[in-house]
Design brief:
The structure is a homodimer. Chain A is an alpha/beta fold. Chain A is 32% helix and 16% strand. The first copy, chain A, has a six-stranded parallel sheet, sandwiched between helices. A four-stranded parallel sheet of chain A has the order 5-6-7-8, covered by helices on one side. In chain A, helix 4 crosses helix 9. The longest helix of chain A has 17 residues. Chains A and B meet through strand 4, helix 2 and helix 3 of A and strand 4, helix 2 and helix 3 of B.
Chain lengths: 355, 355
C-alpha cells in the first residue's frame, strides 16, 4: 500500500511514494508476486490496483480548489475531495483482499491509518514508519497497535516511540543510476529539501555567508512557512552568492548534487532518514549535517562528510572538504543505500513475518 | 457507535449524539442488550465502551488549541489531537468486537467512516445518514458501499443520493418530557438553530420586520459565517423587537419554544430532518417553514403549521397563526416524533437485518 498523494513514481516531491516505488521495482526483480495499491496513473512493474481516480496532489481543477459551500443547483454541499475518505477507501480495498486471504504480507507506507485493520485481516500487516512517530497526535494509534510489526527507517527513528515492536531497521534505498558519480566538483554548497524551519535553510544561508561560499537552495516553500522563508532566506538571495532554484524534480536536481562541493543538511529535528543525503553521497558529494536523527548513521564521519554541533563547526567543516574523497561517498551509497539493498532488507522482514 | 464530538448525552450542541442517546435509552427500555461505543464521560443506561479519553469538542486545554509545531524539548511535532486518528480508533474498537461475533447488528451514527469495515465484520452494519449524503465529497464512500443498509431521517433525505440501499426512513425522536405542552402563547416568533446562511436567520429577521412581530434568535454563530451574521442579522438586533439569546442548551431553549407564537424554519437547503421543528411541535408551537427537505413531512399543513414558498407567504402565514391548534401540534409530536417511536422504527430495522 503506497500513499496516494502522488502517483508512482512521483515526478517531483513525494518521498514516501518514491521509496515505495523503488522497493516495488526491486521486489519484482527478485521474483516476488507484488500487488501495489496506489493512485490512478501509477506505472510500476507489478500489478497495480488503482484505488483512487486521481492522486490527491494532482486532483484536477476546478474541483481541487473549490471552496466548500451549499450549491442551490445541485442541492449538495459541494467542495474539494475529502482526502480522508479517499485514503480510507484506498486502505479498505486492500484490506478486503487481505481479509480474503489474497496476500502473504501487507506492507503499509501509509502513516498510521491502515493499522486499524491489522487485526481483521488474514496476514501480517507491517508498517514502515516514515517518521509517523514524530507526530504526537499519531501516538494513540501507534500505541493501540504497538505489538504489530514496525520497520524504522533508521535506528534513530525509534527514539520517537521506543515502545513499538520494531522488527527491523531498513534504510531507504535510491536508484543509484539516477545519481551518477562525479569526482570533479565546483565550489558551491547546496541545500535541497523543504524550506521549512526544521530543515534549516536559514542556517544554510548563515554557513554560506560566513564562509563566503556560493549557496544554491532547491525545494518547496510550504505555505505555513512562507513567513519563515521571507524572513530567514529571501533577504539574502542576491542571484549571485545565494540563489533559490525553486522546487526541482529528482532529474533536475541530480546535476546540482553532482557538482556541489558539499550538501548542507542543517536540520534541527531528528529526521528519521534523509533521501537528499544519500542522493548526494551517490553523486560522490560530501555532507555537512547537524547531529540529529539518521544523519550520524548515514555519514561515515570524516570519510564521507562531517557531523557538526554548531554553525562554527559547520564553517570549519567547509574548510576541510578537500579531505573527503568523492569515491568514498559513492561507495557509501552503493554499499548501504541502493534500492536493491533496501529490497533485501524488506525481503528479510517479509520472510520473518510470513513464516 | 455514537459520534465522539460530544459525550452522551450532549449538554449543548450535538444533534447526532442526542439522537443516538435517545435511541439507546429507549432500546434499553425495550429490553435489548445494547453496547454503546462513545467518548469518555458518556452516561447511558446501556453498557458503554469509552473509546476516546475526551469528547473531541471537550478536549482539555492547552492541548486542544496548541498550534502544530516541532518542540525541541520533546523532539516531537506537538499539536492538538488528531480527530481522524481518534475517530478511526473509536471505529476499530467496535469493529474488532463485531468481527469477533459479539453483536447481532452494528448501528453507526458516524458519517461514512465505519462503512470501510462493513465487509470485514460478522454482522450487518446499518448506517443512519444524518445528512451525510448532502456532502458531495462523501459520495465516493457511500457509493462504494451502496449495497449496505442505510436509514434515512426522512424520505426527503434520499434525494441527495437515491442510489443507496435504503431499508427504512426513521424520523428522529425526542424525549417529549423535555418539551412540555403549553397551550397559551406569547406573541413573539422564535428562530433556533445555527445562524448560518442555509438555516435562514436573515430571512427570519425579514419576516419579523415585515410583520412587526418580536423575534428571538438562539443558536451558534459558526466562525466561517461570522460575516453573514454581521451583515444579515446583527444590524437589526435592537434588544427590543429583535433579540439574540446566544447558544442555549436544550433545557434553556425549552421555555422559549413553549411560549412562542411560532417557530420560523426558513431554511434554503434540503435539511434531512429538523430537531428544532419537532421540539417546537412537542411544546404545542406552530411552525412556519420553507418547502425544503423534511419539513413538509414534519408539518401537518394548515393543522400544525405552514409550509411556504416565499417571504410573502411566510408573512401571510404569521397572520393565520390563530388557526393552528397547539394541541394538534403536540399530538403530531407525540404520535410521530417521540424517542419511543424512533426506537420502534429502528427495532424493525434490526429485526429485518439480523434474521
Amino acid at each position: 500500500m503506497a500513499p496516494i498523494s502522488w502517483a508512482l513514481p512521483p515526478e517531483g516531491y513525494g518521498p514516501w511514494e518514491l521509496v515505495a516505488y523503488n522497493l516495488v521495482e526491486e521486489l519484482v526483480k527478485l521474483g516476488h508476486d507484488v500487488t501495489v495499491f496506489a493512485a490512478a496513473g501509477s506505472k510500476v512493474s507489478a500489478k497495480v490496483v488503482e484505488t483512487c481516480p486521481h492522486a490527491l496532489s494532482l486532483w484536477p481543477e476546478p474541483e481541487r480548489s473549490r471552496p466548500q459551500a451549499h450549491d442551490p443547483k445541485t442541492g449538495l454541499l459541494e467542495g474539494p475531495p475529502d482526502a480522508r475518505v479517499l485514503e480510507q477507501l484506498h486502505i479498505s480495498q486492500c484490506m478486503e483482499r487481505a481479509a480474503g486471504g489474497d496476500f502473504d504480507v501487507v506492507h503499509s507506507h501509509l502513516h498510521v491509518h491502515a493499522l486499524m485493520f491489522a487485526r481483521l485481516i488474514r496476514c501480517p500487516l507491517v508498517s514502515t514508519l516514515h517518521g509517523s512517530a514524530w507526530v504526537r497526535s499519531a501516538h494513540p494509534a501507534l500505541l493501540a497497535f504497538r505489538e504489530m510489526p514496525f520497520v524504522s527507517l533508521s535506528d534513530a527513528e525509534r527514539q520517537f516511540l521506543p515502545e513499538l515492536n520494531y522488527v527491523a531497521t531498513v534504510h531507504n534505498g535510491i536508484r543509484l543510476e539516477h545519481f551518477p558519480f562525479e569526482p570533479d566538483k565546483d565550489d558551491y554548497l547546496l541545500f535541497a529539501g523543504r524550506l521549512s524551519p526544521e530543515k534549516g535553510p536559514g542556517v544554510a544561508v548563515e554557513i554560506a555567508r560566513r564562509t563566503g561560499r556560493r549557496l544554491l537552495l532547491a525545494g518547496m516553500i510550504e505555505p505555513q512557512y512562507q513567513d519563515y522563508y521571507d524572513t530567514m532566506v529571501k533577504p539574502y538571495i542576491d542571484g549571485k552568492q545565494i540563489e533559490y532554484l525553486g522546487l526541482l524534480s529528482q532529474a533536475e536536481l541530480a546535476p546540482y548534487y553532482r557538482k556541489a562541493a558539499a550538501v548542507l543538511f542543517p536540520i534541527n529535528w531528528a529526521e528519521p532518514f534523509g533521501l537528499v543525503a544519500v542522493e548526494a553521497q551517490a553523486s560522490g558529494t560530501a555532507l555537512i549535517a547537524t547531529r540529529f536523527g539518521a544523519l550520524p548513521e548515514i555519514i561515515r564521519e570524516g570519510e564521507t562528510g562531517f557531523v557538526v554541533d554548531s554553525v562554527e563547526e559547520a564553517v570549519a567543516a567547509v574548510d576541510k572538504l578537500e579531505t573527503i574523497s568523492p569515491a568514498a561517498c559513492r561507495l557509501n551509497a552503493e554499499s548501504r543505500f541502493s534500492a536493491a539493498h533496501m529490497a533485501k532488507g524488506y525481503e528479510g522482514v517479509y520472510q520473518l513475518l510470513a513464516q
